[in-house]
Amino acid sequence: MRAHRKTWWSVALSLLVVAMPAWAARPYRGGAVATAHPMASEAALRMLDKGGNAVDAAVAAAFTLAVVGPYHSGLGGGGFALVHDAKTSGTQVLDFREVAPKAATRDMYLKDGQVVPGLSTDGATSVAVPGAVAGYLELLEKHGKLPRAVVLQPAIEAARNGFWVSPKYQALATLRRDCLRQDPEAARIFLAKNEQGELDVPPIGHLVRQPELARTLQTLAKSGPKPFYSGPIAQAMVDTVKAGGGVLSLEDLKDFKTRAHAPLEGSYRGHRILTMPPPSAGGLAVVQVLGALERLRPQGLEFREPETLHLYTEAVRRVYVDRVKYLGDPAFVKIPMESLTSSGYIADLAGSIDPKKATPSASLLPPVEGASGSTLKKPDGTWYDPSSAPEKKNTTHISIIDKNGNAVALTTTVNYAFGSCLVAKGTGILLNDEMDDFAALPGVPNAYGLVTGEANAIAPGKVPLSSMSPTLVFSKEDPKKVMLAVGSPGGSTIPTTVIQVISNLVDHKMDVVRAVGQGRLHHQYLPDELWVDRWGLEAATQAALEAKGHKIRRQEAWGDAEAVYSDPKTNLRYAASDPRNEGAALGQD
Ligand code: GLY
Known about the structure:
By secondary structure, this protein is α+β, with helices and mostly antiparallel strands. It has one domain. The chain has 20 helices and 24 strands. Helix 13 runs parallel beside helix 18 and helix 14 (306-326) crosses helix 20. The model is unreliable at 1-23 (pLDDT under 50). Bound molecules: glycine.
């Protein structure tokens, strides 16, 4: 056998390949963070600089986002986290998503058999039992190193000193102005008097101060989660929701429990992937779509090539059909996860794709007959077409890898922009409208235009199905080493955003900044449309896809991917905060 001799040019080439993913991004020798708000990224960095680990940093960022990003997350919401411990090489999943109150009923949003728009999205009737406080503090308790008071300090300061209203805040407050005006407490905090003396969307630069929220955070820093779930804070939340006609009770709060799950495992072209299992539908979509694409194109995808985009779209369409058929809270419904992730199933999924033409969604699973409208209300009381505005979908994500290789991917939400628009009196806590993630009526789209099925029907104590997909991708050479922490908001578009960032890195060898910034495409079974963002397609590629039968809908930008990449070879870290939004990627030199 002839020995392989390295010539000078093959050495130079391999050095170039090693360096490739880092060309456009700034390297950090220490930890790196990416979040949707500069103040949250600074809070995370402050914890790393104090000697904290990725979890201290993530929890500081999550509490700070609860203050400075009320349009996407908060103490009144819930979420999911993946935590990787570099020392043990173990990855834990914590599910602190909201659950339906005990008095919730399957038909609570129906009148005469039809969905009443707005009931599951606006005000007291839309509120599920919040889990964020339990989740953030449990993460800190189990995996953090720094004292609670230190980790909550940046959030307390942000609530006390204020943050300034940005264009994004303005856009989302405009979307929810009427909803916010329904609650005097929310209107007082999140709106500002205009020239006519009415509470209106504040001007850019207006300072939002939240002294009540600062007090609540101080209580949590001192006493932990208890007062939130059984003390005076709990009472305030219950009183506010009850006064608005909702069903949240003290028992709901007292009995709230986080859930630990095993991560959902997949792989893509030699990279191990750990992601969120049900009650998220997102992680399964990531695993199934990437699995199918690897089968169809084992050498990798070509960049923006029409055949490849067709296969991607068809795989995604089929995966969203599975979501309707099977997915809900695993504590309530039996989900055939083993089968859905098996290589045989993924091979069948890939094999069912016609390479020449688009499969009509209705031929895979007929839409529910007579279902129309959505759960979201327009100001005139009629229903709103959620598929027309994916950029308005909300939630937020934090990605962190610290200098020791510990990693956190944490996605958290109050659901729609400004949640339910209801603030628990005297506490500053903005409550979620997560009940809208249930199927109010199978076949009727929710605020994200998503249709879900029987498995996601409302039941007391049940977790509504989510799309949130916090994901860790591991190094090919060392499957115990996290290479990428990634996630995004965007409702139904979350999993496809995560899939495209991973493909951009793995297939197209982009640095993480470029991978996050690329244009995006999305399908979700219904509506039967391929959504393309402003930067997603060239005209000729669009024509080629239309020739295959895809109905293309041009949309504005969506998502807010936050990602940290750790180069397995150099051990340098790179962070990217989606250029579509106002976040910040920071790191330690
Ligand atoms: N509330 C958005 C999601 O969980 O998917």
